[in-house]
Amino acid sequence: MTDQPSIVRVRDILAAEEPGSCVQVQGWVRTRRTSKAGLTFVEVNDGSSLANLQVVAEQALPNYEAISKLGTGASVEVRGEIVSSPAAGQAMELRAADIRVVGDSPDDYPLQKKRHSFEYLRTIAHLRARTNTFGAVARVRNEVSRCIHEYFQTRGYLYVHSPIITAIDAEGAGEMFQVTALDLENPPRRDGHVDYGRDLFEDRAYLAVSGQLEAEIMATAVGGVYTFAPTFRAENSNTFRHLSEFWMIEPEIAWCDLDRLQDIAEDFIKCIFASVLDRCPEDMRFFNDRIDSTAIETLESIVGSRFVRISYTEAVEILEKAVEANFQFPVSWGMDLQSEHERYLTEQTFRKPVIVTNYPRENKAFYMRVNDDGKTVAAMDVLVPRIGEIIGGSQREERYDRLREQMAARGMDPEAYWWYLDLRRYGTVPHAGFGLGLERTVQFITGMANIRDVIPFPRAPGLLSF
């Protein structure tokens, strides 16, 4: 039996220090050029690298005629020898001993050698990952995800899987997708209304907007956990910052107060950014050159900075004095800070990330711990330049009576949250947590303008293809 050369990724061949190895490469044709001298140069990419591998095919190959007519997008399997490349821009290339065309690609292949708009590429999301931009986005997204797991796993957190189907609204916003197994054309009825008691779960069911409440169950049993799961919001928003389906990372830590939570959030975001800079340098140079010329500088600055920490009240005082900013939304105590306010704090006032704490009680969720002043809660938002909030979190209300008061003030039914209240009856402890949106983080790192371009298959109002 003939020994087959090992399959090697393009990134490893391009990084090789010495020629001479016989290898096998599997990938897709980016470009093909045939010279009059009887040579065909095929640029092959397998998704492991931004750069392509140049494959040199000589006329002596038995299928050279087919190779000389290869179309962009064709899939090939190449065996050959790594040799030093005389071409500018790469040290190594592959001299082909055999090229097998696995799947040809006709002339109507949508990704020709020209720049396509991101709007157009969203209509062919099944192919856009083969472009330089979306290959780079995928590798950065992968590295962010890898680092998140490593961060928590090396610090003793347990990875828990929160349910995707739920009966309660964790955020209280009411923008939830309903899930049903009933016949929508002819649902069962009782007293003139749909009888959800005859549905699969014998109650109304929804797609989860958060895994936080369930994470609290686990944290109050094992100490520290994190979820990393898709979440769903039925908000009819078509902005560049919103998706209907997106991924959230939600750590929950027992025996934790707001001060410690801020330390964890700052360390966490710095770790992610440092990891991307270290492990995706080629892709980050691409984003710096093609998308946002400050991408690398911004990440380096954040990694090397000490985040500013101020209260909501202090933030409002700063913004009220910023008359030159001419904000679209006037500033007053008790209002929600808007993106323009958050960016002013990070880009103009402090020129670095800012953690704002102790927000007005009425503006925040029912589960946040009420401070001694009775007006504010122990909440925090981590703000960064360009986008504003990147992390939101709080110390949770661990006192049974205060939690019931919060729920009553919002007209919530405590019976629907009986198990959540039970956590405060049986061995309650201080605990805290936050949420980080994966897509918003990748969008910030890469500088991509639209959040629909940092997830492989975006789900947004009117967008359900692929």
Describe this structure in words.
The chain has about 475 residues and is α+β, with helices and mostly antiparallel strands. The chain has two domains: about 10-105, Nucleic acid-binding proteins (OB fold (Dihydrolipoamide Acetyltransferase, E2P), Beta Barrel); about 130-175 and about 210-455, Bira Bifunctional Protein, Domain 2 (BirA Bifunctional Protein, domain 2). Helix content is about 30%, strand content about 25%. Strands 6-12-13-18-17-16-15-14 form an eight-stranded mixed beta sheet, sandwiched between helices. A five-stranded mixed β-barrel has the order 1-2-3-5-4. A three-stranded antiparallel beta sheet has the order 7-11-8, with no helix packed on it. The longest helix is centred in the N-terminal third of the chain and has 22 residues, at about 130-155. The mean pLDDT is about 95.
Question: What attributes does this structure have?
Answer:
466 residues, alpha+beta, OB fold (Dihydrolipoamide Acetyltransferase, E2P), eight-stranded mixed β-sheet, 13 helices, 18 strands, 29% helix
Shape descriptor reads globular
Helix share, percent: 25-40%
Number of strands: 18
Structural class: alpha+beta
Using the coordinates above, name the CATH class of the largest domain.
Alpha Beta
The assembly state of the depicted protein chains is single chain
Average pLDDT, rounded to a whole number, is: 95
Low-confidence stretches: none
CATH superfamily heading of the largest domain: Bira Bifunctional Protein, Domain 2
